[in-house]
Each structure stands twice: as structure tokens, then as C-alpha cells.
Design goal:
Length: 290
């Protein structure tokens, strides 16, 4: 992977770049033909928005606080990405309901079964400046991605959507404008940072689960950054170093809101704000970071 070119590392699927190594054609075909159930739960995110965090929180809500699934099954098998190569191997058709999946797909990339069945979606969003920051470090350590280059270079690619899973702006606009909004819970990384217990309650309510205050507390406690970081089933330490070099940057890196302030120059902040303003000018949705 180290010596591969951009053309070898990424392929275009429904107009969006996907990392070929993780999403070979047979996986994309599997995903296209996948049949949803109405009680499926889909964690949907643009990469680096807190997917792994949700892969911890949601199974614990489903298990009503039993830690077994999160302590014994790696996050990528516990809540598999439907578009990832591993999904084919996991016999998802036989899994008991409610099945929990993850996807980085844009709304328009979802398959026919999704639009027919309308499973439940948790759409997690994060301040794009922090998504950029988290991505910048991640692209520097993950060998299946094109190297980020300088911060300025990576910013232009990010703003232009020339990275894995394309444009953050298109991703968010597609999902907030979805017609099936009543089956989607919109949630912010920043609200989970501000009030994890409240977020657990909110997600549980959407999923039709009533948890006791003790169980809610237990889940939130297990899922705070410093605790979750210790879970080898969720901190990606099981991934070989040649694939993700966590000596360069850890996967569970800082886990805070506003880290962009430590990275952006004033010029970069202005550049980012100007593009954000232009691309989001018709959006009325209220984001937590605005
Ligand atoms: P940072 O790089 O800013 O630390 P994803 O799982 O979508 O790839 O997102 C990864 C980001 O979510 C990383 O952000 C990671 O640290 C953060 N994250 C994961 N678990 C978290 C937790 N329990 N609390 C806060 N942030 C978490």
C-alpha cells in the first residue's frame, strides 16, 4: 500500500471516492444487494465524526448495559460497515434483530432496499473543522489512504471533497435533506461531549429502549474517552501497524471538541469559513457548532 498511487488507492463509486482496499468491487456489489429489515439500526457518519464512539454506545443500549459485546467483539465486527470487505464474511443475514450497522455512504449511495424499508438511522455529525483535524492526523497514519501532504494541501482536498467518501458538505446536506427524516435521529459529536448521559438517553428513546438511570450511567461511564480508549476491542490496536501506525497518531487521538483551534492558522480559518459559508448558504438546519 505504501507505494501505491492515488488511482490505485481510491475508486469512484456513485460519484464518490472510496478506498479500494477496504471497499473492493465485490463488497460494493454486496452492499448494493443487501436487504434491510425495518428494525435495523444504521450508524451513519462522514469519516472521523465519531463512528467508533457510536459503535460502542449503541450496542450497549441494545444489550441494556451488558458489556460482553463491546469487550469481546472488535468494533468492526460488532457494528460492521456494510460497504467494507469484511461484511461479506459475517453472515449478516443470520444475525438476530436488531442488527446494528455502520456506513459512511452519502444518502444518494444507499441501495434500493434502504429506500423501501427505511430502517432507523443515527446520523452523527461533527464540526467540520474538527473532522478536518482528525482526518489530517488519520491520513498521516493509515497506509490505505493517500498521504495528506501539507496542511494547506489537505485543506484544499478536504474542501473540494477529493478524499475518501468525498465532500463533507455533500454528505451532510444529503442526509439532512433526506425525505425519510422521521426514521433518522440527528445527533452531534459535540452534544455527546457536552452530555454523554443525556445523549445515551436520547438515542435509547429513539430506539424504543427504556433504560434505568443506573444502566444509562454505566453506559456513559464506559464510553467516556479515557475509558473507551483502554478497550482493545475498540481502540484499533488489533490492526497491524503496517496498516495503521498508531505510533504516528493514535486512532482514539484526543476525543475533544475544538481541537481545530490548535491546528489552524488564521489564514486557514478564514479560508475554511469562506468555503463553509458559500457551500452551506441555503441550509436552514441548525448545527451545534454555529
Ligand atoms: P480525534 O482524532 O479528534 O481524537 P471515527 O470513529 O468516525 O473515525 O472518528 C474518530 C474520532 O472520534 C477521533 O477524534 C476519536 O478520538 C473520536 N472518538 C472516539 N471515541 C471517542 C469517545 N469515547 N469520546 C470522544 N471522542 C471519541
Amino acid at each position: 500500500l505504501q507505494n501505491m498511487t492515488e488511482a490505485e488507492l481510491y475508486s469512484l463509486y456513485k460519484g464518490v471516492y472510496v478506498p479500494t482496499h477496504l471497499h473492493p468491487p465485490e463488497s460494493l456489489r454486496y452492499c448494493e444487494e443487501f436487504t434491510f429489515r425495518p428494525d435495523d439500526i444504521l450508524i451513519t457518519t462522514y469519516p472521523k465524526s465519531g463512528t467508533t464512539w457510536m459503535q460502542e454506545v449503541v450496542p450497549l443500549i441494545v444489550s441494556e448495559g451488558d458489556l460482553t459485546p463491546v469487550l469481546t467483539v472488535p468494533n468492526w465486527d460488532r457494528v460492521p460497515w456494510l460497504e467494507e470487505h469484511r461484511a461479506i464474511l459475517l453472515n449478516l443475514e443470520q444475525r438476530a434483530s436488531p442488527r446494528v450497522f455502520a456506513t459512511h455512504f452519502h444518502h444518494h449511495m444507499m441501495n434500493e432496499s434502504y429506500f423501501k424499508i427505511k430502517p432507523r438511522v443515527l446520523y452523527l455529525m461533527r464540526n467540520p473543522k474538527d473532522v478536518f483535524t482528525s482526518s489530517y492526523y488519520y491520513y498521516g497514519m493509515a497506509s490505505y489512504l493517500v498521504k495528506p501532504g501539507t496542511q494547506d494541501e489537505f485543506m484544499e482536498k478536504f474542501l473540494d471533497g477529493k478524499i475518501m467518501f468525498g465532500s463533507w458538505f455533500d454528505h451532510v446536506k444529503g442526509w439532512i435533506n433526506a425525505e425519510e427524516r422521521e426514521s433518522i435521529l440527528y445527533i452531534f459529536y459535540e452534544e455527546m461531549i457536552a452530555d454523554l448521559k443525556g445523549s445515551v438517553e436520547k438515542i435509547a428513546k429513539f430506539l424504543g429502549k427504556s433504560l434505568s438511570p443506573d444502566v444509562t450511567e454505566k453506559i456513559a461511564e464506559h464510553c467516556v474517552f479515557k475509558n473507551m480508549k483502554q478497550n482493545i476491542m475498540s481502540n484499533f490496536s488489533l490492526v497491524p501497524e503496517e496498516y495503521m501506525d498508531q505510533k504516528k497518531s493514535e486512532f482514539l487521538r484526543k476525543g475533544i471538541a475544538g481541537d481545530w483551534k490548535n491546528l489552524f492558522t488564521e489564514a486557514q480559518e478564514q479560508r475554511f469559513d469562506a468555503v463553509y459559508k458559500e457551500k452551506m448558504k441555503d441550509v436552514t438546519f441548525k448545527f451545534m457548532w454555529d
